[in-house]
Amino acid sequence: MKTLGIIARHLDSPAPFGTLTYYLEDMIRMKGDLKVSIAVFSPLDWDPQRSLIRSHTFDGNQWHEHEIAIPQLLYTRFTPRSSAEWDQYNDMVNTLERQGYHFCVPLALEALLRDKQQFQHFLETHQLPAIPLIDYRPGETEEVLKAVQQFQTLYIKPRAGSGGKGISLLSLAEAHVLIKTEEIHYEVSPGELANFLSQHFPPDQYLLQPKARTRHYHDACYDIRAMIQNDGRDAYEVSAISVRVGQAGHWVSNLNSGGDGLAIEALELHFQEHFGKTAAEIAEEVTVLSRRCADLLSKQYGDFAEIALDMLYTEDLGAIILEGNSKPSRWVFNRIAGQYPVGSQLHERYKSLRKKTVVYPLRYAVNKVF
């Protein structure tokens, strides 16, 4: 039997891996007759001088702690929280990669998706539809002011942000530039803008993009998430599509920032009214673009088990890619299923998509030859 090594953070509520525990337990409960087990460990326990590491396994009922040799196939679900943790994590995974261990998502691809600016360059290089970057350099704001005059609103995004955190808006307000953060609004004169941006949003840590020509759904922004998964035989499938809708009046749609999940079917009338297309047609466009992007990523970075692409549907370009995620959650499918009566078609469909996407990494582990 193969073992999939899963890199995760030890947390106590619930033990042993916080809310990720539910996902990990579902992997085992839903795997059916797949001949694979999981061993979960933290990079914070890694000691390069030792051949064994503290690990947890799940037997379908309870967790067991062991010391084991690190499995050859590794699935990363760990996000460092400090520079010291980044050092420990990078030291471990880079060492293991040099020693011939295989990662479900290649480390170079994980790094690309983590850096929004580099991923945008990848999209532009391969002529994939995306939101252009504004030329933003230290001490220079001429291009920024031209862009805000043209597009009215710009997004300021952390290059390495996640969960919609740290995103701000930049717009014109009479003779001033208005900058809205999650906590406070600033009014800055055009002459002060260069110093303000350099101080609060340095170009080596942030990027600027114009607001896309989208439509709101009930006064809220939304995006479309496509899960792209591979069963270990280099056959990339768009295994599930969902919609994430933000709170009314807010500018991000991530669930961790107060958003919620919606079935793409729930936007049928919205899509027909604003884009003259059915939800099925929108989903097909998202699927085609996702597969195209997956093929290009795999050619450049090697095969991968899964990623998620977050997209917008726009009035001028149709489906465009917003960003990628190397550690996508499955929480949204339970949220959507819970909006419909048990036994109804959409309830069963999204519960099934949850199971399908949970089991896919195990299928990759079983089929992958390396």
Low-confidence stretches: none
**Number of DSSP strand runs:** 16
Radius of gyration: 22 Å
Q: Characterize the biggest β-sheet.
A: 5 strands, antiparallel
Q: What share of the residues lie within helices?
A: 25-40%
Described by the principal axes of the CA atoms, the overall outline is globular
Q: Count of helices?
A: 10
Run of helices and strands: EHEEEEHEHHHEEEEHEEEEHHEEHH
Q: Work out the strand percent.
A: 25-35%
Query: Structural class per helix/strand content?
Result: alpha+beta
- Tell me the strand order in the biggest sheet: 10-9-8-7-11
- In whole angstroms, the N-to-C terminal distance is 15 Å
What's the average pLDDT?
95
Tag the structure with descriptive keywords.
370 residues, alpha+beta, five-stranded antiparallel β-sheet, 10 helices, globular
Secondary structure elements and pairings:
Elements: E1 2-7, H1 20-30, E2 36-41, E3 53-58, E4 63-68, E5 73-76, H2 83-98, E6 102-103, H3 107-114, H4 116-125, H5 142-151, E7 153-158, E8 168-173, E9 176-180, E10 185-188, H6 193-200, E11 206-210, E12 222-230, E13 236-245, E14 260-262, H7 268-275, H8 279-301, E15 306-314, E16 318-325, H9 331-337, H10 345-367
Parallel strand pairs: 1-2, 1-5, 5-6
Antiparallel strand pairs: 3-4, 7-8, 7-11, 8-9, 9-10, 12-13, 12-15, 13-14, 15-16
